[in-house]
């Protein structure tokens, strides 16, 4: 989508610090990191939110999870542990309407999240 921030990052129209890229996914550093490791993993296809996933997106979902695994290894949190957060909708504070997986780690993380 032309006016979507993360679609523009996918098309390299806006700069981002890319951690991992595949045919179907992109992982890049969050511009406002909340932990020593804070990477966003997105499908390249414009899917607005988690609630929009359908069975035909199964391969994309697997690709996103494989990219999360790769990011965890590259960022050295695969063994120490990390958290994956997907905000969906108003009460979660979802600010960008292109589904994104926050990968957070590099320190002890509080539970429950606020
Ligand atoms: P959410 O609140 O779940 O929608 O998360 C959106 C995230 O995108 C926030 O953590 C922002 O810091 C991050 N963000 C916004 N603009 C950019 C950008 N240009 N590059 C990287 N991360 C961004
Ligand atoms: Zn988009």
Please describe the topology of this protein:
Layout: H1 5-10, E1 18-21, E2 25-29, E3 37-43, H2 58-74, E4 82-85, E5 101-105
Antiparallel strand pairs: 1-2, 2-3, 3-5, 4-5
This protein binds adenosine monophosphate (AMP) and zinc ion.
Give an overview in words.
- The structure is a single chain.
- The chain is built from two helices and five strands.
- The chain is α+β, with helices and mostly antiparallel strands.
- It has a single domain, classed as 2-Layer Sandwich (HIT family, subunit A).
- A five-stranded antiparallel β-sheet has the order 1-2-3-5-4, covered by helices on one side.
- β1 and β2 form a beta hairpin.
- The protein is globular.
- The site of zinc ion (ZN) has 6 residues, from α1.
- The site of adenosine monophosphate (AMP) has 12 residues, from loops.
